[in-house]
Amino acid sequence: MLKTGGFDMFKKVFEYAGPYRKDLYSATFIVLLSVLMGILPFVLACQIISPLVMGNTIDTGYVTARVAGVLVCLILQAVLYGWGLDVSHKAAYNTLLRLRTSLQKRFEQLPLGFIQDKGTGTIKKLFVDDVDSLEVLLAHSLPEGIANLMIPLAVYIAMFFIDWKLALLSLASVPVSVLAMMMMYSVGMKKMGPYYMAGQKMNNTIIEYVNGMEVVKVFNKDAQSYERFRKDVSDYRDYTLEWYKAAWPWMAVYSSLLPCTIILTLPLGAWFVLCGLSTLPDFILILCLSLSIGVPLLKSLGFLPTMPQLNYKIAALEQVLETAPLRQTEDTFHGMNHDICFDHVTFGYRVNSAGDRRRPEDASCAENAPECRKAQSGADGKPPAAMDAVITDVSFTAKTGQKTALVGESGSGKSTLAKLLIHYYDLQQGTISIGGQDITEMSLEALNSQISYVAQDQYLFNTSLLENIRMGRPGATDEEVLEAAKKAQCMEFLEKLPQGIHSMAGDAGKMLSGGQRQRISLARAILKNAPIVVLDEATAYADPENEEKMEAAIAELVKGKTLFVIAHRLPAIRDAGQICVIEHGRLAAAGTHEELLERCEEYQKLWKASQRSAGWKVTTANPARGYHDVVNSATNKGEEGK
Ligand SMILES: Nc1ncnc2c1ncn2[C@@H]1O[C@H](COP(=O)(O)OP(=O)(O)OP(=O)(O)O)[C@@H](O)[C@H]1O
């Protein structure tokens, strides 16, 4: 929630508007004139009623002129209102464009890990729903709200000059209405935190549900039986209803009371006239003016119920816009060589009070929301100290041109180390440098130009496979792309696709196996031809048929490169110049395969385990029988040593 509520919110919105602020002022002024045109007919009506009540004679010309005046006012009111909204909508949508662009620029500077941890649903909500909801504020609440408030204010001032006693009577309904409004705002704000977070959670769960549809179906689950889906969707309903239940009674009070500007003016004003405390023309004029301001007042405050929600949405946007960007400079890469040096690297994911891990910058809570402050600062409210270190004091150097492998049990921190090297996150302690240059002292582009990162899961954009490969080096010619595809052993399956390499990844993606998709990403990396190659379980999807081709593709990719590889299958990295054994986020030992087998207990354990699993193989003993036999060849061969 923004610190001081409404005013900060408007300040922020004007900041977002930037050069379109002028248009917002113009729109407010035009709508102001329109509201004024809505008030004038009441004054003109009074000019007709007053002399009639006083028994004065008025001629037809006098009446016709005023009736014509009323008509002109009504036409002008409609025209000005339309014009004002036209200007305000242009300003609003240009502001939304500006805001989305700033958000996108900020996202580009944020640690990639932060973005992934946030969840697709939250990010979509931020970019689409939250930004969209500002349209109401910019195009309506601001110009209409201000104009509809200013004119009644001016009318009240005029009424005080006409007859302050009658003006006071006309104001009588305002204090109670304002009190009801404040109550609505206050209860609304209290319920807004859980409501907003329930919305974010539901968005993430729906996207997860759609993405995981395959698993959901395989395990015979539907939306109803998928417990989290049901819970998050019904939680959202409950929180929304709770908010409505708390806020609407107050809204009902003020929206029925506020327009009742004549509730006291009529009886008491008449009595004042009878007692000689007020004059009849003033009484009639005040009555007409009181009637004229009811609708604008209600309109101006009709936007109030949306304010708590908007406040929360702006707070969530602000939190992303204010999140510390990834530490980097504009510098290019000027390392002496491609030695990768991890120097006393410590990194962890924050632990909240509930024990969940979350990124330090996790913005799923809106800033300053009490429940989130607690989560981010620990139950005692002190600054968060509980960093659950995933990597602790890791130091080693991967030499230029050498193959360095990271091995360790699942969850030991190997992928985290690879992600730290490609600067997914900033470190808590220590440094990572390439050729002596700290990775935080170069731009992300400079770092990216030095590294090809091939992970288990490679994303294919919904464009042609040719363009997907070209992303490795955007300026590459078609021939160069084809050459890379050939080297990555892609041609054999690309040629079978109806449009070959020009097939769209969206359609072709469905026809490609996991291993084939990985070969596309290897082609991308071959085309990029960066001096450092990071392979994070790159052969994870390789089936026996694919494996050979994958290995040929990888051999092509890593030729003459500094190789940083994470592999579960130890035989594949046996030849590495250096193997780093990671145990619970610490470097247990480093050395060659032979050295580690001699002196590192953890490595011996891993090697034995890999030998055992290599011994287990699945064969189709008799295809005619149509089932697979599992054969433990280790029992035949005996446990292999070196
Ligand atoms: N984005 C994240 N947020 C919170 N915790 C994470 C995140 N990514 C990884 N972890 C945790 O950090 C620890 C190390 O994970 P990491 O993926 O680096 O291990 P790994 O050795 O590569 O495992 P595997 O071999 O199974 O891929 C694990 O306990 C994991 O749960």
From TrEMBL:
Residues 358-609 form the ABC transporter domain. The chain crosses the membrane at residues 29-50, 62-83, 145-162, 168-187, 247-271, 283-304. GO terms for molecular function: ABC-type transporter activity; ATP binding; ATP hydrolysis activity; ATPase-coupled lipid transmembrane transporter activity. Residues 29-309 form the ABC transmembrane type-1 domain. It is a multi-pass membrane protein. Its main location: membrane. It is found in: Cell membrane. The keyword Protein biosynthesis does not apply. InterPro entries: AAA+_ATPase, ABC1_TM_dom, ABC1_TM_sf, ABC_transporter-like_ATP-bd, ABC_transporter-like_CS, P-loop_NTPase, Type_1_exporter. It holds the Pfam family ABC_membrane. Signal peptide: none annotated. Keywords: ATP-binding, Cell membrane, Membrane, Nucleotide-binding, Transmembrane, Transmembrane helix, Transport. It comes from the Bacteria. Residues 355-384 are annotated as: Disordered. GO terms for cellular component: plasma membrane. SMART domains: AAA. This is ABC transporter, ATP-binding protein. The lineage of its organism: Bacteria, Bacillati, Bacillota, Clostridia, Lachnospirales.
